[in-house]
User: Fold these one by one.
Assistant:
Number 1:
Amino acid sequence: MGPVRAEPMRETVGEVAEKVFHELEEQHHFRLPRTAPSDLLEAIVLRVNYVAAYLWALLVLVIVVAVTLRYVFGRGSIMLEEIQWHIYGVGFILALSYGLVTDRHVRIDVLAERLPLRRRAWIELVGLVVLLIPFCLAVIVEAVPFVLRSWQLHEVSAAPDGLPHRWIPKSFIIWGFLLLLLAAIARLLRVTALLFGRPAPLPAG
C-alpha cells in the first residue's frame, strides 16, 4: 500500500460566506486614516460598549424568567416587563456610538461606493458638522433638564408594581448621546486627517 494522502480540509458554507462577506467589506469599506486623538475617543466608546454588551445576555435571562413565570406558574410581572423595556432601550442607545465607530451604520452604498474617496470624505465632513454633531448636542441639552426633573420629582412608573427611579433609565439618553458625540468627533478627526492632514495620520499597518 502506498502512503495515504491527507485530503485538504474543505471549507464549510459558513466559512465561505464569511470570506465573501469580508472581501466585499474590503472592497466597499470607507477607509479613513487613524489618528492618535481619534484612537483615544474610539477606545472609550468601544470599552463602554464591550461592557454594555452583557446587557443583551441579561435581557435574554429576564425574558426567560418572565415567560416561565407567566406560562408555567401563571404569574405575570409588570416589573419584569418594564425591566425588559429599560434594558433594551439602554442597550440600543449605547450601541448607536458603536455603530458609528465600527462603520456599521446604514449608508446608501449603491451611490457612495461609486464616488472617489475624497468626495465621500467631504460628504462625511458636512454630515458630521451640519447634522450629527449639532443633533447630539441638541439632544444632550434637552435631556439634562428632562432627567433632572424626573429625579427631582422622584418619578416612578404609573403602573402598579412598576419600577421606581425612572430617572436612571432616562439618564442613558445623556450617556448614549455623549458617547455618540465622542464617536462623531473621532470620525471627524479621521476625516480632517484625510482631507487636510490634521491631526497627523498614524502610519498604516
Note: Residues 24-28 have pLDDT under 50 and may be disordered.
Number 2:
Amino acid sequence: MKFSDFKSVKQVIEKYPLAIHRESFLPNIEIEPPAGFLQELNFALMMQSEIESQMFFREYFIAPFMRHVWMRHPRLKLWVNQNLAYKDELTGAPDYFVARRVETVSHELVGKPLLAVAEAKQEDFIAGWGQCLAEMIACQKLNERGNITIYGIVSTGIYWEFGKLAGDTFTKNTLSYSINHPAQVLGALDTIFATCEQEISG
C-alpha cells in the first residue's frame, strides 16, 4: 500500500493499531538564522502569489529549513523523494526522510531511516499526518529495533507540526510552529536532527 493512500491517522491505526498521545516533547530552543537565510525567506514570502504550486512551498519554504539544519548534522543524510519500502506492505517516496549516512563498506546505499517529512498539500494536515505516520511505521519496521524513536514532520512550508513514534505509541507535539518565527522552527528541527544522531550512536 502506498504511503499516499493513507488519508488520515485513523485510517493508519485501523491497519497498524497504536496508542495516540499529545504532549509538548520539544524543548523551547531557538536557533537564529543568518541574515541571508532571512532575506531569501522574506523574498519568497513577498513574491508568493495566490496560485502557487505545491512545489513552490516545498522548494522555497520547506527545503531551506531542512537544508540549513542538515548542515549542522553531517552524520545524517537528507533524502529527497527517494523510494522507501517495507516489503510490499508500505511503499512510496516521502517528500523527505533523514537516515544514517552510509560511510563504510556496506551492501546498503540508504541508511536506516529515522525521520519522515510529508508536505501538507493544500494545507490538509489530516491527510498529511496519515501519509507521514505510514512512513514513520515503515521507518520503524526497517530499523528492526523495538526501542528506537522515529520522528515525523508535516508542513505546508508556512506551518510545521511534529510527532514521534516510540514502540506502539504515536505522540503529536501539542504546539505547531510558523515561519513567522523561523528561529523556533530551526530550533525544533535541530532538536530532532540531534536526537536522530544520538539514535545512530546508540
Note: The domain at 3-201 is CATH 3.90.1570 (tt1808, chain A).
